[in-house]
Design goal:
The complex is a heterodimer of chains A (558) and B (128). Chain A is an alpha/beta fold. Chain A is built from 21 helices and twelve strands. Classes of the chains: A alpha/beta (558), B alpha/beta (128).
Chain lengths: 558, 128
Amino acid sequence: MEENKSTKKSEEEFMENYQKFAMKVPERKPEFKTESGIPIKPLYTAKDVTSSSKDIDLGFPGDYPFTRGVYPTMYRGRVWTKRFLIGQQSPEIFNERQKAMLEMGQTGINFIPCCNTAMRGFDSDAIPKETIGRCGSTIDSLLDAEIAFEGIPIDKVSTAFNDGNPCICAALYFALAKKQGIPLHKITGTSNQADSLSHWMSLHQLILFPLEAHIRCLVDHMKFCTEHVPKYHPLSIVGQHMAEQGATPIQEIAFTISNGIYYVKTFIESGLDVDDFAPRLSFFFSVHNDFFESIAKFRAARRIWARIMRERFGAQKPASWQLKSHCQTTGVALTRQQPLNNIARTAFHSLAAVLGGTQSLHTDSFDEPLWTPTPEAQRIAININNIIAEETGVANVTDPLGGSYYVESLTNEIEDRVLEIISKIDHMGGMLEAVNKGFPQDEILRSAVEHQREVDSGEKIVVGLNRYTISDDDDQEPPKTEINEELIDRQIERTRKLKRDRDKKKAERSLEDLRKAAETGKGNIFELLIEGALTYLTRGEMVGTLRDVYGFGQPLSL
Amino acid sequence: MKKHTRVLMTKIGQDGHDRGIKVVTTMLRDAGLEVIYTGPWQTPESITQVAIEEDVDIIGVSSLSYDHPLIFKLLDLLKENDVNIPVILGGIIPRSDAEELKKAGVKEVFHPGSTIESILECIEKVTA
């Protein structure tokens, strides 16, 4: 009581002093706010945390509701997985780059397939050659997976696939494991972009079929992995691309968690027990520019999800309550102008992710706004992680910012605002209804337009872009990623040859099984994709067959 | 700017990254232009067809994952069909590729960081 009174009195005195000082040295802006629009006061004190009407029990790292981290030891036990996206041109390049990055400290694989072929369900011989492999690695068949993972011990390393559902990359990988005689229960990793609802409403790159078909494939994938690949995460619930589309940190969390609620309901309705699958759900977030808001965002997200899982869905296992996340530092905040500045930016973003308690991290390379990264640019990016881990000391204590007046106040404020949006979506009938009405899409676009206006007007400063600029002539382009056209040619020929040389009967039979399962709704699509992969069916053939049955997905657009 | 300049905004090839095109479309509409957005996954053929059908004054193409080489084909098709609609481009385009595209007939290439004002000025100039 006494303590509170004296804090209140001191704060008033401080503000008087503050106003006096501000007469001589005015504030830099008419208002200060976070990226989500939360007003920022000059000062935060214990009052801001304890005066909240919520019963805030920060708890401990590893304890429900995990505000301070999902594990008791956090990075003192094991630092976050350094999981860098690798993939460009062809599987040979992936193999080469991946091995080099494993030497530089990469601890989890993060395979990105070609945006224009694989992500769109096509083989390399199906689209104009000049657009292949510039943005992700080609990977048409098991043959390509064999090349990609040659010499990499897939029973010992965790592999995430930046591949949408029906999770062809995962099917190829599990087929590869089978071929190598590795039991599937040893395989770890994540289907990092299997979250089709988020793609339906945001980044459409990975939408192949109507949404219901994607969800069916996802349920099959979840069921298969629950039974046969228990260490694998079949679903990462993704906020990252919403953030890149313009969502503020608050919107990113609110919409991602709402999607999570939809998925948990869907899997339960499919017959799975919540405690059977929830521990293997993972989340995938962006890290925004606003340093402290990004940190607070993770803490709020963990607390909100834990409560939802325990209270709303009645999950019993602590592992079901844990929000484990992979993060990718923001790309849209990087500039093409003076690109070396991006090294500083990505360092701050990475630090925020670490202080926020992420389990896994990809740091963008500085040349990301220009092209798929060079090996040197990627090396710098992973060394940012190595420097944070080994040199800054931040990983030597659990939740170093716990108790910070500002961070705790922000965490509370974000939680309140996120819960408001989730409640709004609940009242709309859930996330699927909200998406069909265009609600989150409109909100995200509004934020994106507002951001653009603020940058155009100079209200928001982007260093090198609208302030501290240099001329184009002085702005040297960094070394460019060179595409080896021969490898692309080789890939195209490899796929063509595969289609000629494989056992045609077996391939046709497995394709027919897949088609039947899609048509009748019986059988497990994902299991049949693995079988198909083993007969050297290609992605284009498998996705093409599913598309024949399900149709082409056309999400709501502007 | 002539009243109600008609703009066709489109994404060519397989690229689905559409933040930029949606923001630009919204801001052009706020500035009073009539904008038709085709959605992603258009081909040079489909873009040519829509441009003719909609009788637009300018075509704005967006490319974020290296689909811009397809624009050469688009320019050829427009020429073959005697369609005199200027094309501008926005997205992630290496400088050297941007130069090649401009030589081939693209009126302007907008890199990340371009302001909406610069785009409006360009549309006004090019459709005058």
